[in-house]
What does this fold into?
Amino acid sequence: MRTPILGLIACGLAALAGPAQADAELAKKHNCVACHHQERKMLGPAFKDIAAKYTADPSAVQTLVKSIREGSVGVWGQLPMPAQPQVSEADALTLAKYVLTIK
It folds into this structure.
């Protein structure tokens, strides 16, 4: 009796972890990880630092979507983030929401 319950719990936890994992895969697919890391600065800021900077900004998602697709400069220093127009609006939205969840 205990095994089926543990199996259901494991499946439920896997389902909860699924979208975050999928979004991390999306970041890899679009090569975001070439310049960004979840926890430490690389060429660009760490995802957790981006999330912290925009935590109280109600327009954060749209700001990040715009930065992903159109690029930006001056927000994190003078090294520009190149535009990524090949990233669809939907993927950019998913990535922005994902980055904002990282603590």
